[in-house]
Amino acid sequence: MYPYYSRDRIQADLRELGGAIRKSMGQNFLIDPNTIDRLVRPVHEALQTCSEPSVIEIGPGLGALTHRLIEYAPVTALELDPMLATLLRRQFEGQANFMLIEGDARRTLAGLTAPVLCGNLPYYITTELILESLSVPGVQHLFFLVQTEFAKRACAKTAESSFTVFLRNFGEVKLLERVPASCFYPVPSVESSFFTVQLYEERAPAAILEKLLRMSYRSKRKKIRNSWRVGEALLPVETVEDLAPSAGIDAEKRPEEIAIEAYHTLARLIAANVVVDPERHA
Fold first, then answer.
1. Percent of the chain, pLDDT > 70?
2. At residue 269, does pLDDT exceed 60?
3. How many C-beta atoms surround the C-beta of residue 17 within 10 A?
4. pLDDT digits (tens, 9 = 90+) for 163-211
5. 28 is in an annotated binding site
6. Separation between Cα atoms, residue 270 and residue 93, nearest integer Å
7. 250 has binding-site annotation
C-alpha cells in the first residue's frame, strides 16, 4: 500500500533522512487517494491508445501518481530533490516498470522519449517545463497539475496571453479537474488544476510564431500595430503589417482581441515570405 497518504509518515521519513519539506522548491504532496485515482484515470486512458505505452513523469515527489501509473506502463521519473529520490528508490526498488533519473528535468528530459508525459509542476518553472515537454520526441499526450490561475490561462479559448496562443500551436488544451488545496500536504495557499494537451502537428513554425508573439504582446494595452512598431524588430515590421489582413488580423485591435488561429495563420504567411535568421532568438 502507498505509504504517504499520512502526514505523519511523510514527516517521519523526511526527518529520518535529516531533511524536511522544501517550500522553496514548491513541494506540496498529493495525499488524497480519491483525487489521485481521478488524476490517473485520463492518463491511463491515453496510454491505452498508444502502441508502445510509457510515461515520463516530471517531479514524482513521493510517488503519489507514480505508484498507480506503474500498474499500466513503464514510468521514467525525473526527480530533482535527493531526499525524495532516496524515498522513491526505497518504495519502488525492484519494480520492473520504474526507472528514476535524478536531476533537473529541464536538462534530464533531453534524450528521453515517451508517448505520455505528466507532472505535478513547481510553480516557479511551470512555463519552462511545459515548453521543454513539447519537444520530447514521440510525445502525444501531456498532463500537468499546476496552479489554477496558470491552468486557466493555458486553457483559455481566447488569446489572453502569448503563452495561450503558443501552446495552442501544438495541441488541443483542456482543463480536466480542479484540485482543492486540502488534497495536498503541506496545504498550499492556492488551488490547483489538472489539464491536458493532446498534441497535433504544429499549426505554424514555432520559431517564427514565438517572435511574432513577443512583438505582439509587448503591451496588451496598445493596439497590436503599435506593439509591432516599438522595441526590437524581431521580424520585418512592414511585412508583418502587410500580411496581417490576409490572416484576418485587424492591426487596430489589441493583441488579446485577435483570434488564436489568426496568429498561427500570420506566422505561416511570414514563414512563406520572409527569411528568418535561425540563430536569432526572441
1. 98
2. yes
3. 12
4. 999 999 999 999 999 999 999 999 999 999 999 999 999 999 999 999 9
5. yes
6. 52
7. no
Is residue 138 annotated as involved in ligand binding?
no
User: For the segment 33-78, what is each residue's pLDDT rounded down to a tens digit?
Assistant: 999 999 999 999 999 999 999 999 999 999 999 999 999 999 999 9
Average pLDDT over residues 207-225: 94
Is residue 31 over pLDDT 70?
yes
Q: What are the start-end ranges of the E strands in 24-169?
A: 29-30, 55-58, 75-79, 98-102, 116-120, 141-147
Residues 82 and 183 in one domain: yes
Residue with cell 505520455: 116
Q: How far apart are CA 81 and CA 84, in angstroms?
A: 5
Number of structural domains in the chain: 2
273 is in an annotated binding site: no
- Please give the Cα distance from 3 to 7 (Å, whole number): 10
Residue 204 C-alpha cell reads as 505554424
The three cell numbers of residue 33 are: 487517494
The answer to whether 256 is a known ligand-binding residue is no
Residue 280 lies in a domain: no
Ramachandran bin of 90, using left for φ above 0, alpha for ψ from -120 to 50, beta for the remaining angles = alpha
Q: Which residues form the domain of 219?
A: 206-273
User: Is position 120 annotated in a ligand binding site?
Assistant: yes
Same domain, 12 and 70: yes
Q: Look-up: residue for cell 516557479?
A: 124
